[in-house]
Amino acid sequence: MPVKKKAPARRKAPVRKTMAQGKPFAIRKLPQGPAPLPNIPNYRMFEVRYLGPTYSSGSRVKITDLRFEESKTIPFDQFYNSSYEVAQAYLKRLGIKLSGKAEGPNGYFMWTNNFETSIKEKK
To answer: Which CA distances in Å does 4 have to 9, 11, 25, 59?
Structure first.
């Protein structure tokens, strides 16, 4: 008895994909590479934290320079209302002009475009 051969499968014409509403599904091409960023200036950032009083010392404010990884702890001046104002006055006395500030969960963040002046006082 002769063996029957299967006929080759017919190729179907390409079907355009559609969404559930019956509209054609558009495939968007992603942009190649990262999008160019606008010219954003670089800043130096400080973190300001309030340190409460202890048995041996009063309230203090700690300023941490996140760029150069150095910190300075100064006494809290009761003339000012917040640790931000104390730090702002201290940095102004050093000649560092602030460009902005933000509040964080543990204190304040301040930034400047002055990269030359250290937050440690020179004796």
So the answer is: 15, 21, 42, 97
